[in-house]
Amino acid sequence: MFGVVPRPLWERKIRPDERHRIPLALRCLLVETLDGLILIETGIGNKESEKFTQIYGVDNAAPDGGAGADRLQAAISHLGFRLDDIELVINTHLHFDHAGGNTFRDSHGSVELSFPRARYVVQRGEWDYAHRTNERTQASYLRDNFDPVERSGRFDFTTGETEIVSGVSVFLTPGHTPFHQSVLIRSNGAAACYVGDVAPTMSHLPLPWIMGYDVEPLVTLESKRALLRRAAAESWLLVSTHDPLIPWGRVTFDGSTVEFQAFDEVQAP
Fold first, then answer.
1. Which of 77, 158, 79 shows the shortest CA–CA distance to 125?
2. Which residues of the chain carry a pLDDT beneath 50?
3. Which one of 105, 121, 176, 231 is separated from 194 by 20 to 30 angstroms, measured CA to CA?
4. Closest among 82, 56, 88 to 68, alpha carbons compared
5. How many helices (H) and strands (E) in the chain?
6. Handedness of CA 210, 214, 219, 225 (dihedral sign)
C-alpha cells in the first residue's frame, strides 16, 4: 500500500498486524441530489470465496439484523432507503474493492445487480482497460463485478471530465489505473471531492507516498499534484476511500508540501 516508502515511516501512520496487513476502510458515499440518490463506489461485495476473504481479512457481512447481502446494502437500508432508490452508481475504477458491490450473489448462488434501477457510471477507457488485463492486473479485475451491468445495458460510459448531473461531476486522476476518475460534488458554494485511489488514505496525500499497486506511479504523482492544487485553492472537502480513521478533511498545498486538517464533522468553508 505504500510502495517505495520505507516501512519505519509508514507504520507510524498505520500499524500492521502479525501478517503485515493494515486496516483499511471501504468507504462509499451516498449523495442526495434533486436528480435522485447517487452512490459513489460500492465496496467489495459478497461474491468472493472464503480463501479470498481470509487473505484480505474482509469483514463485509451485513450485521446481525441488517437487511442486505453486505454491510453497504445494510447501511442503505438503515438510512431508510431501498436499493432500488439508487438512481446512479459512480465507480472511480473497476477494481474489486471499488466495484465489487455493483452486483451481489443471492441465496441461490446467482449474480444479480445490486441496484436494479440505477445507471452505472465509469470511464470508457477504464472499461476497456479492465478487459485487457495482463499478469500484473488480472487479479484486480473480477468480471462478475461489472460484466453483468454491461449485459443489462445499465452502464453509462464517460470520457474525461463530465458533469453527471447538476452539481456532480467526474474528472480524470490517472496513475493508479490509466483511466481512474475522482468525483466532485458542488452545493451552495462548497465542494467535496471523493478522491478514490489517487490518494487511498490521508497518509497518501504527500506527493511521494504512492501505492505499489499503481500501474503508472509517476502519472499518479502529477494527478495528485493537480488535485491538491485545486483542493487547496477552492477549499474542497476531501473524502477518503480507504482511510480507516479519517473520513474527510481539507488541505493547504504550496506545490510540494501538503498539510492536512481532519474534521470530525463536515464544516462549511
1. 158
2. 268-269
3. 105
4. 82
5. 7, 14
6. negative
Determine how many CB atoms are found less than 10 A away from the CB of residue 91. 29
SS3 83: helix
Q: Which residue has the cell 477494481?
A: 95
C-alpha cell at 184: 466532485
Q: What phi and psi, each to the nearest 5 degrees, are found at residue 121?
A: -120, 130
Domain boundaries, the chain: 7-262
Q: What is the DSSP string of 145-204?
A: GTHHHHHTT-EEEE-SSEEEETTEEEEE--SSSTT-EEEEEEETTEEEEE-GGGSSSGGG
Q: Which of 199, 228, 168 is nearest to 3 (CA)?
A: 199
**Predicted local confidence at residue 68, as pLDDT:** 86
- Residue 253 grid coordinates: 498545498
- At residue 90's C-alpha, the angle toward residues 85 and 95, to 5°, is 125
Residues constituting the chain: 269
**pLDDT for the residue 60:** 92
Determine the Cα–Cα distance for residues 95 and 229; give it in Å rounded to an integer. Answer: 27
- Contact between 160 and 6 under an 8 Å Cβ cutoff? The reply is no
CATH of domain 7-262: 3.60.15.10
Alpha-carbon distance of 207 to 259, in angstroms, equals 11
Tens of pLDDT, residue by residue over 58-89, are 999 998 877 889 999 999 999 999 999 999 99
Residue 86: CB atoms within 10 A of its CB come to 22
Instruction: Determine how β-strand 86-90 pairs with β-strand 36-40.
Output: parallel
pLDDT of residue 269: 41
Contacts of 65 (CB under 8 A, 6+ apart): none
Strands 168-172 and 181-187: antiparallel
